[in-house]
Write a sequence for this structure.
């Protein structure tokens, strides 16, 4: 299945972040998976969706231990 490739600028706009913030995420390894193509960076739309799904939370704070 083919997935759309997004540039850093396109993804930053969609996430309401800066391109610099995405660069920091890549450096820290905390953002969505990315692809290096030559001197550029691209993000698969499917990888971004998977990353967003993994960020979904039902509450704030620490994880609760099982009762």
């Amino acid at each position: 299945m083919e997935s759309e490739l997004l540039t850093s600028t396109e993804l930053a706009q969609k996430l309401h972040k800066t391109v610099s913030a995405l660069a920091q995420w890549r450096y820290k390894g905390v953002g969505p998976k990315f692809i290096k193509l030559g001197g550029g960076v691209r993000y698969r739309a499917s990888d971004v969706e998977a990353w967003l799904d993994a960020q979904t939370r039902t509450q704030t704070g620490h994880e609760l231990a099982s009762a």
